[in-house]
Known about the structure:
Two copies of one chain form a homodimer.
Chain A: E1 4-5, E2 7-10, H1 26-39, E3 43-47, H2 53-61, E4 68-74, H3 86-93, E5 98-104, H4 107-114, H5 118-134, E6 138-144, H6 146-152, H7 154-166, E7 171-175, H8 183-195, E8 203-206, H9 214-224, E9 228-231, H10 245-254, H11 258-261, E10 262-263, H12 268-271, H13 274-284, H14 306-314, H15 340-350, H16 361-374, H17 383-394, E11 402-414, E12 420-432, E13 435-442, H18 453-463, H19 469-472, E14 476-486, E15 492-500, E16 506-513, H20 516-534
Parallel strand pairs in A: 1-10, 2-3, 2-9, 3-4, 4-5, 5-6, 6-7, 7-8, 8-9
Antiparallel strand pairs in A: 11-12, 12-13, 14-15, 15-16
Helix pairs in contact in A: 1-2, 1-13, 5-7, 6-7, 8-9, 16-17, 17-20, 18-20
Amino acid sequence: xxxERLSLYDTTLRDGxxxxxxxxxxxxxxxxxxxLDALGIDYxxxxxxxxxxxxxxxxxxxxxxxxxxxxxxxxxRAGRSAANDEVLAAVLNAGTAAVCLVGKTxxxxxxxxxxITLEENIANIAASVSHLVGQGREALFDAEHxxxxxxxxxxxALDCLRAALEAxxxxxxxxxxxxxxxxxxxxxxxxxVIENGVPGDRLGIHTHNDTETAVAGSLAAIMAGARQVQxxxxxxxxxxxxxxxxxxxxxxLLKAPYKDKxxxxxxxxxxxxxxxxxxxxxxxxxxxxxxxxxxVGASAFAHKAxxxxxxxxxxxxxxxxxxxxxxxxxxxxxxxxxxGQSNLRRRLGEMGLEVDKSEPALARILDRVKELxxxxxxYDTAQASFELLARDELGLLPEFxxxxxxRVTVERRKNKYNKMVxxxxxxxxxxxxxxxxxxxxxxxDEAGNDRGPVNALSKALxxxxxxxxxxIDDMRLVDFKVRITQGxxxxxxxxxxDSEDGQGRRWATVGVSANIVxxxxxxxxxxxxxxxVRDGETGAA
Amino acid sequence: xxxERLSLYDTTLRDGxxxxxxxxxxxxxxxxxxxLDALGIDYxxxxxxxxxxxxxxxxxxxxxxxxxxxxxxxxxRAGRSAANDEVLAAVLNAGTAAVCLVGKTxxxxxxxxxxITLEENIANIAASVSHLVGQGREALFDAEHxxxxxxxxxxxALDCLRAALEAxxxxxxxxxxxxxxxxxxxxxxxxxVIENGVPGDRLGIHTHNDTETAVAGSLAAIMAGARQVQxxxxxxxxxxxxxxxxxxxxxxLLKAPYKDKxxxxxxxxxxxxxxxxxxxxxxxxxxxxxxxxxxVGASAFAHKAxxxxxxxxxxxxxxxxxxxxxxxxxxxxxxxxxxGQSNLRRRLGEMGLEVDKSEPALARILDRVKELxxxxxxYDTAQASFELLARDELGLLPEFxxxxxxRVTVERRKNKYNKMVxxxxxxxxxxxxxxxxxxxxxxxDEAGNDRGPVNALSKALxxxxxxxxxxIDDMRLVDFKVRITQGxxxxxxxxxxDSEDGQGRRWATVGVSANIVxxxxxxxxxxxxxxxVRDGETGAA
Lengths: 541, 541
């Protein structure tokens, strides 16, 4: 027997944008749409054309996708025809092959929020869907508050669905808009809906995570017969977010009974890019990726318990439900325990450093990491600093140059126009190839704005490094994170700096000090040294 | 018909400590245990006595709790009697009323990981549980890998459970150790186990979140008959974490059918402290609380969509599945939309500022917030800076003092012992009551350590503020967060500073600048000004 097709519908660009603090630019939307298309999503909901300039621009600029591009809107308002509703017209004007319209199915919302009769609402649904179909579009109907509506007035809620279905909607999407419906109820109500005449292969499910069960609710709906599932990357969305496609997709591909019953548009190859896609979205949002998230989190396969870590080395299936590599993720065995050395050798191997089992530096590296981590360093993200530390112990780190001293001044005072302005100045003294070089830079950019002391330091450090100058000219600082690792008066600051170069490499380095400028300088120095290592520079003669 | 009692078992202090990056001190464990006890948890698992000094010290120091304090350990090893197993002896020596022992139930793990026969394993389980009961302890048996074991060899897995039950275990806890079992399987297997002779009121469930369904899996087990549920606060735990009690507890208390069928130890009053308890744990972990988490997240009741926000103002049940106040959480309606003004008045009211509807400053406050947020400010957390901004527009902010200028120098060079050392020095010039005051401080603390430029600035600013001196003497900086809000060369830095005073108040302020020192200074200034407002100081004569 062949597998049934399950349709994946992504709403990261619409419902995902309802996340508090999230506001995508058009360029970011285009980047996310390309990633969704590469992943193998069937429908990409791009936004609500006409609702804001960003969404409208997205539909103007988006290139052809393999996925069906979908515009979102709402059913026509009462008192005008579908053809004369300018809100609906703007949605159609986006010219997408598919259009998804949200409409009411909960009697309470029809009468209180819309203030129209139950019959008028049904007529609006039918007329709106007919209008889409008449324009040659694939129509989807988002049944808002469906589960609450069904519990309040099942016959009416079902009548709304049937109106959309009979008007030609390809998909009827059951939305748990407020997120309060538990999985067992979702399963039961989906079964009821199918028994009442809406075929499962026309039914979609749209859940929210307000009880932390959005993924389970979606799975329950699929098990009950729904054949489209809606969600977002990383579970973005209004309030607690939507069903997390980043968790759902691996379950559908890897877990019984789903993997045996269904096929989805995501290939094994695309699945192996899922971790990268998830991190890319966090990167766009300038968020630190959550470590403990299912399948793709940095801790999802981290084995901290001593008994687990030692068993994992014998056989990973002892404490892993799936292979992390399937999602492009990786196993983490903390270096502090007995599993440390072989794990360390694996990490070094990934950096191109093949080290023999008997190498005594291995133990020294582990000791140094342990000691530095107790001082506030963290090498989970700062892989480049870790590599430098390891190279140092292995005797594979050239001494490129020596920093003799630096000084930074930050001043804020009135300028000649009686306006408060700030300015930083940095002096860095280095010794390269036996020659002492003094460099000074200030924090003013070309537009006359103060960019701060770390900027001034970074410029002074990179200003004259003799024969290394060319190698570091294409480096730039792209992110900067600071964390106080101990509170109170003993506060210690950890700075993580992300750098990029012209070859598209991106690397993270760490510095720790009670002095934030000094911690930043340490991380900057590591960034420069790693770049010189990677570019194959050799040390002082 | 009376409600059935459901037992809540917390393992934040044991499995929660397996979270990557989490390492509780004994003092922190004591603080968490007190919070769990106040919440109404039935069992508090404190750790593994003997496994490390922190866990042992916890059991020595923990005061009497209403909850049953539980020590964790493992079943005796083969080849020795339970009485002669020193690992088990250390667990019993903690003297807790209850002891939970983990043991194997998956044949593969017995033969590969333990390397003993299936019969020996069953004998070990029985002997260990009997030993606990013989010592007058309440015994719990954690059936490791039970669901995988049941799928591989059901008769053997069931025999293990029966051995524990017959030896006198009060609870048999079915553990989904690797986290790969989906809710529908958990429900089915729990039903099978009950049919095979283990009564539901002796059965517990312990799930992990590796497929993002740990909460749903726990609910499925309860629905199938299990009567104890294990989890952790904020879903801490190995890999992706354990079932999140912070999400489970509100569902059990507020949602059908659970609220009608069961009673748990958490009162309505304790539930109203849940948000605070969740934030306290993040505070101990020095983590930024996740906003999108169910029930207790800062965004859990944030209504960003325009249609939602306006409906919420008419009737909150339109877009809220439960009342946020029940968990001590609050509704957030972003100020940028039409719902803004009434929401703003509510927020001001909470700060003790009763403002009339017709007050023209309301619109100005909203405009200023909108403009500043577009520059990188964020008032979600920095409530104190928000209050100052509002007071300023309302004419309720005295001008306490004026900052004329400041200068900070950070230097790093060799000292007389040829060691690289760093030092910061700050000069702040303020005008108080018409008098100009120059203050200088350095960043060296009493132990001779450099505490950085923000420390030096903070000390110089607080050194001489004339008649305000007494009010600010009990302030201290307790946390400091930095975020680049725009990447690249146009980088803008946002600094959030948390301050505390001797009266236990804690407040957050924000500063934004391309210059991190300047952003810090702005946040420091706001911190001082808020403190002066709160202490009822008046402005310059």
